[in-house]
């Protein structure tokens, strides 16, 4: 800040007054033509100031909106003269009378656009430095700058709107669950580390030197214990913590709407979850949702969409061609474990540059390239691979994809996991680029019958696809140890517009079945007892059948508010490097704090290198 501005602020500071006995009578978005001649008191921030010679206009902002305030030398000379000191983001209180704006001066885009308040007197409650960016929705400041000054960023109307929407959604959730017999019960934040999933955030214990708590990745075990305790219906809007790499829809600390019910099956849990979404959308957006939501199995989702959270707002399904090109002259197709394709209607106009960009995109998912064909006419196929395809293969491709003149086809060949991931994500990427996704639509979907296990290539073993407390499908208990790749889970995910917004399962409530699950995961009896002994003991004391679901509140609010990132719906989020630019967390702590905890830090490798270099330099 320049010395001139600093001097100006210090000069103005002498005019600051206490709020005294003034009481705000109305917010800055309430006044309409019906309030003309009403005496009011407004308080807020100076959004804009315009000096038109004789008159000074100020747009006054509070959390509800804007009101235009007029300082006139003819009506209140002293108030007008002092208004010359006003600057952006100064905090003021104004008393005045409401009047209609002159003919032709109304603002139809503003709720208070038909009136203005003529100031009779006012108080300067505080001054402000010049903000580092404009406090308005049309802000071109970078995200890092906005996060650094988050308390200012949150003054912008769009950010306040997001957090108000979040508040209303949370209130709607609480009211619905209370009305339906759920008890809100809190579970511990300082708990036991059970490293079977994402990394835990560890908290050292001062009173138990050398021991650590873990921050909960979810309340999973405690909510199951509450079912054993006989509460039958539990919920919690709870903070959870996972030490994992971040992206637009992930944070190291996030909020879950957590639910658990006793004496239920999948249908019961899914029905309550659908009714909850109905209530939230009605209360928050005024939209009515149709239930039940469509359902598809995990196998169907992977077959048609390549991903387990399909966006069903548009078509362009994946089509398998493996058998049709098994003997193809194009060896990549002939030798591949799987060949799939998608059709982009009217995509013939895509340029080579755009196609090359799509090729770069699929490399993210392990693809080596991207084959394509433009259908120029019934007989002319433009493509580097067209010459390798027989007439019989062309016919099969054309019929299965219902390909027509003007379409472009994209192909992927290789292992099934890569093919599905590459084409499934390319499908969404192309739809976004070509504006094929309908606006203002909310397509809900249940994905069911997930695999119980997935193979971890790094650890060379099967791990739980959801978590190790998910019950296998009826008849699949023996498959857990005999053929884990075929075992299916009583798990279900709620998907909205291609985003997983909720996931749950029917839990294992038998101690014997839970032990078999851990055997299938490679746990020794000792390790299972050490990490989860308290759960086994609970399951041995009449645990009821139970299941539940957890919704990612941040992601749900992101979709409800049409935001691009969950950081836009969290008051004080972290960056993609899990840092807080506002508080500079995480930060180092004092040696005294570390000694209290019995912790000694190893020197960073670069410090050793610097020390060695200094020693070498001294010796020479």
From TrEMBL:
Residues 220-223 are annotated as: Aspartate. It is found in: Cytoplasm. Transmembrane segments: none annotated. It catalyses: tRNA(Asx) + L-aspartate + ATP = L-aspartyl-tRNA(Asx) + AMP + diphosphate. ATP binds at residues 242-244, 251, 500, 552-555. GO terms for cellular component: cytoplasm. Coiled coil: none annotated. The keyword Phosphoprotein does not apply. It holds the Pfam family tRNA_anti-codon. The record marks 52, 104 as: Important for tRNA non-discrimination. One of its GO terms (biological process) is aspartyl-tRNA aminoacylation. Aspartyl-tRNA synthetase with relaxed tRNA specificity since it is able to aspartylate not only its cognate tRNA(Asp) but also tRNA(Asn). Reaction proceeds in two steps: L-aspartate is first activated by ATP to form Asp-AMP and then transferred to the acceptor end of tRNA(Asp/Asn). PANTHER family: ASPARTATE--TRNA LIGASE, MITOCHONDRIAL (PTHR22594:SF5), ASPARTYL/LYSYL-TRNA SYNTHETASE (PTHR22594). Belongs to the class-II aminoacyl-tRNA synthetase family. Type 1 subfamily. This is Aspartate--tRNA(Asp/Asn) ligase. It comes from Candidatus Desulfovibrio intestinipullorum. The lineage of its organism: Bacteria, Pseudomonadati, Thermodesulfobacteriota, Desulfovibrionia, Desulfovibrionales. The gene is aspS.
